[in-house]
Write a structure and sequence with these properties.
The chain is mainly alpha-helical. Helix content is about 65%, strand content about 10%. The radius of gyration is 29 Å and the shape is elongated. Keywords: Coiled coil, Protein transport, Transport.
């Protein structure tokens, strides 16, 4: 495994074959042990006088005893997913909550509400819910259960029962005050190493994300040129009778390579780009989790300092410090456990994603090479036939 100090690469070694490599990474929560299955599908557009939005069908099948039924079907919009994420962060501040796709798409990418955008978001929302379902702690969160089972009006009513404005303001003020205090004095070395790891990871994953998008853009430009290049040879063959068959053969080869390029582009857009971007978002989430852990630690440090400077109310301070020490310990243990799980998942995702790309590239080049070799072999046979006919008396 890659240690916290080893951040120069995602994989310290390369297994003999991609299939054997993927088989090496098995998780305890395998499909045969799962008891909660979630599907996000069937997007629907809703147009009102105020707004236009998309809802997605969320189908849940489970064998858990705490659910009243074995199957549920509800419709959720993006705002509902945002609510769930915020509730999970509120209940589990030092657990790694899976990322959601951004609300607004970047300029220059596909248009909002286009079929491509909706399908990309649907896949991301599907992965978001299933990552929560696979998490050993988050999967039993009560708000998650309500999200999966409550009808729209019930969910809306539940949302209104959240913390009031003054409570939320108090949390924000405490968070700001904690961040203003500066670096945490008694931060364990493990979390300093985690922070350093994430800074380097963030730089690397953002760079990989940019490179992958540039490769995809260049591949699309190449594909568009090939689409125009093939028909040119077909038109050319109409005016060159002597080499018409050869020109048509070239056009056919270009068409096959064009289709192979399209398959490779689909592999990039389905298996590489989403994974890299998901971990770009994960890097931001991890930095936020580490900051929240430091805020809890900072609250404890401030109480300890206050106790050292006070001669009265020591009993009251001691009780508060005891509670904060327990809170810090729980936060540390939660983050350490989730960190190991996240890193294992990240390494598996990266290996499987890049392995998939490598296998797609091999298939692509083998297919194109075989196409052109077959064409050249046919031309060579035709040339020998012509030479033999010319040599005959």
């Amino acid at each position: 495994d890659t240690s916290l100090a080893e951040v120069n690469s995602f994989s310290p070694s390369v297994p003999i074959s991609p299939s054997s490599m993927i088989n090496q990474y098995k998780f305890e929560d395998g499909p045969e042990l799962r008891d909660l299955f979630i599907t996000v599908d069937d997007p629907e557009s809703h147009i009102t006088a105020i707004e236009t939005f998309i809802t997605y069908r969320v189908v849940t099948k489970t064998t858990r005893g705490e659910f009243d039924s074995s199957e549920y079907e509800v419709r959720r919009r993006y705002q509902d997913f945002l609510w769930l994420k915020s509730k999970l962060e509120e209940a589990h501040p030092t657990l790694i909550i899976p990322p959601l796709p951004e609300k607004f798409i970047m300029k220059g990418m596909v248009e909002r509400f286009s079929d491509e955008f909706i399908e990309t978001r649907r896949k991301a929302l599907h992965k978001f819910l299933n990552r929560i379902a696979d998490h050993p702690t988050l999967t039993f969160n009560e708000d998650f259960k309500i999200f999966l089972t409550a009808q729209a009006w019930e969910l809306s009513s539940h949302k209104k029962q959240g913390p009031g404005l003054l409570s939320r303001m108090g949390q924000t003020v405490r968070a700001v005050a904690s961040s203003v205090r500066g670096a945490v004095k008694n931060r364990p070395e493990m979390f300093t190493e985690m922070s350093n790891y994430m800074e380097t990871f963030s730089q690397k994953i953002n760079l990989l994300d940019k490179i992958a998008h540039r490769i995809y853009k260049e591949e699309r430009e190449y594909f568009n040129e090939m689409k125009e290049y093939g028909p040119i040879h077909t038109l050319w063959s109409a005016s060159e009778e002597d080499i018409a068959d050869s020109l048509k053969g070239i056009a056919s080869c270009i068409d096959r390579c064009c289709k192979a390029t399209e398959k490779r582009m689909a592999g990039l857009s389905e298996h590489l780009l989403p994974i890299l971007h998901e971990y770009v978002l994960y890097s931001e989430i991890l930095m936020g989790v580490l900051k929240r852990r430091d805020q809890i630690q900072g609250e404890l440090d401030s109480k300890v300092d206050a106790l050292a400077n006070k001669k009265t109310e020591k009993d009251l301070f001691s009780e508060e410090i005891g509670k904060l020490e327990d809170k810090v310990e729980r936060a540390n243990n939660a983050l350490k456990t989730d960190w190991d799980r996240w890193k294992q998942n990240m390494q598996w995702d990266m290996r499987s994603s890049f392995t998939n790309v490598a296998e797609n590239n091999l298939r692509y080049y083998e297919e194109c090479l075989a196409t052109w070799e077959s064409f050249l072999a046919s031309q060579s046979v035709d040339l020998h036939v012509e030479e033999d006919s010319e040599d005959r008396p």
